[in-house]
Amino acid sequence: MGHLMTDFTPISELAQRLRRRDVSPVEITQDCLRRIEKLNPGLNAFITVMSESALAEARRAESEILRGEWRGPLHGVPVALKDLIDTAGVRTTAASALYQDRIPSHDAEVVRRLRHAGAVIIGKNNLHEFAYGGSSLVSYFGDVHNPWDLGRIAGGSSGGSAAAVTAGLAYAAIGTDTAGSIREPAALCGCVGLKPTYGRVSGRGVIPLSLSLDHVGPLAATVADAAIVLQAIAGYDSADITTADIPVADYVSALREGAKALRVGVPRGYFFDDLDPEVASAMEHALRGMQSLGAELREVQLEVPTDRTLQAAESYAYHAENIAKSPELYQPETVRRIRSGEKVSAAEYIQRRRELDEARRSIGQVFADVDVLVTPTIRMPAPAIADLRANSDALRPAELKLLLNTRPFNVWGLPAISLPCGFTQSGLPIGLQIAGPHWREDMVLQLAHAYEQATAWHKRQPQKYSEYGDASRGK
User: Fold this and answer.
1) Is 157 a catalytic residue?
2) pLDDT computed for residue 470 by the predictor
3) Angstrom distance (rounded) from CA 10 to CA 32
4) Which of 21, 52, 444, 448 is a plausible cystine mate for 223, CB 3.0–4.6 Å?
5) What is the pLDDT of residues 109-144, one digit of tens each?
6) Whole-model pTM?
7) C-alpha radius of gyration, the chain, whole number
8) What are the structural domains of the chain?
9) Catalytic residue among 12, 96, 139, 157, which?
């Protein structure tokens, strides 16, 4: 199944090698492109591979680094984008026939920031159509497959992004998360996925699912790498009303703080209900591990919001015109989901929006007694594609079950990360979720990094994806 890999190079180390000119951005980009060519047919993680422009960006990065103009740890590093994030002059499809030929004229703000940091944009990842689902089995461009077992889902809606990072097709990816769409695929594929605080990263130029709940964030191989990417994309955007003008912490140096004396809240009610036995056992092991790092565990009770009316209404509002005009250009299941928001009245929408604001305000009280919250990310390992296909009526309920533990953190708008904390006996990854107070990504990353460094889960890689040599590894 998996084995401990000795030659994986995270961005945090790769950056120093690039800066010292031990390795070239061109070699690294060519290597990723070779891996995509070899592995993407099985995974279906990419909709568009930007080979030519990526190599041109890599050559530019190489000459800048040679001139001593190093821009930071993402300079010359190949990064992928979920294909609902606008790229100027490159089609951005949201995995839908409706947008199969849509070519934006501007980069999304998050892409502008990545380019400013010197990242090489290698391509656009497959996703659940319009991000409206947690399986990535509803896409005009076909299913995304899990790198640990091609017969299982990669999760969604950022399924292609998680699969690409796990299989080493890109060093990091940018996804979006409305109910768990970064953290769920990260957990099911065994990589790191971070949903920042609502308003921490600009969503301008990102095709929305639900404007009140959408978050943009990184998927990466390690916690440090997620911190590096977040550093590049976080911060106020005066043209995006959802972003807040609140200073951005130094996420990378926060990692050195460790987990000592952190008060860890464990909300067993709801979040630990109906766990798969192997997930339950991995969680208990992880909690004991945090205690041994010096964290203090405290049981907490949370009132968990479960209403989905707001998301349904906002999704319908975005799609209403196209659904009326050309429903045949959407996958039938997506049409059904979008139409679920058709009957929400203005009065009900206003009430639900008010409840959201109240939930975001009141959750802060929890952090008077604890510093962070820890839960399982997903209550079960990745389901088999065949099982979800067997009965079309069962797909949505199965996805909703997968998103039970992630969705509340979108309502609360809290920063939350998923990182590996174990594997099932059949070799499927298990994810641990850590959340913190608004704007305290630094604290969430701190505990996540301390736990990750004390374990070896992040070093484990699907056997068949470690066979292909690459420019950055093992030299």
Assistant:
1) yes
2) 47
3) 14
4) 448
5) 999 999 999 999 999 999 999 999 999 999 999 999
6) 0.96
7) 20
8) 2-305+363-465 (3.90.1300.10)
9) 157
